[in-house]
Design brief:
Blueprint (H helix, E strand, L loop, with lengths): L1 E2 L5 H11 L22 E11 L1 H12 L9 E4 L10 E8 L2 E14 L3 E8 L5 E11 L4 E12 L2 H5 L1 H26 L2
Antiparallel strand pairs: 1-5, 2-8, 3-4, 4-5, 5-6, 6-7, 7-8
Helix pairs in contact: 2-4
Length: 191
């Protein structure tokens, strides 16, 4: 949904209530859990090391629970800290070139074991793009903790197709700021 000002809570609630009943906007549901690229989409994979040890691992998991991978300001999630559970519908609000975009997503799957914690969400019809994004923290056998963001997407809305280079630039900006936001949170909460 394209808006000329930041969306009000009542509009967001009504939008998400309507979207939660709708199917995903792409057929490759769950494909972000595989390493192979998804044909017909832009495939992105970014990773950053967050540190080592149990405290880093606990802080990284907490960052995901609090959706700290969203840099805030120009890109944020509504409700503010939704529960991380399969089928949970969320809104992703982004301000791009003075316009506000209210997008809908649903959590496709959750991963929670001793070495990985995170989730993937997929786009619903009210999203400007279509595809899926995985946000995950991982701990290896040496105690190294990494944050990984894997996505496959393509423009769905005509304006996103028309402004494709700008949309891709904002996707790259989101990834950079997401990595930085996770790193800062973990550094501030792991000691």
């Amino acid at each position: 949904m394209l808006l000329f000002s930041r969306p009000k809570d009542s509009l967001i609630r009504a939008f998400l209530d309507a979207e939660k009943q709708l199917p995903y906007s792409y057929p490759e549901i769950g494909s972000s859990q595989h390493e192979a690229p998804v044909a017909g989409y832009d495939n992105d994979l970014s990773t950053i090391e967050l540190g080592r040890g149990d405290w880093v691992w606990l802080a990284a998991k907490e960052a995901v629970r609090q959706w700290k991978m969203f840099p805030g300001g120009w890109a944020y999630i509504v409700p503010r800290i939704p529960p991380i559970r399969q089928h949970e519908t969320v809104g992703m609000v982004a301000q791009v070139m003075g316009l506000w975009w209210l997008n809908s997503c649903r959590i496709v799957y959750v991963i929670d074991d001793e070495h990985q914690f995170g989730f993937a969400y997929g786009t619903l019809p009210g999203h400007v793009e279509c595809g899926e994004e995985l946000f995950i923290v991982e701990r290896d056998e040496n105690g190294r903790v990494r944050y990984r963001l894997r996505a496959f997407s393509r423009p769905r809305f005509w304006m996103a197709r028309l402004a494709y280079p700008i949309a891709r630039a904002y996707q790259r900006k989101f990834v950079r700021e997401s990595m930085q936001s996770m790193l800062v949170f973990v550094q501030n909460h792991s000691s």
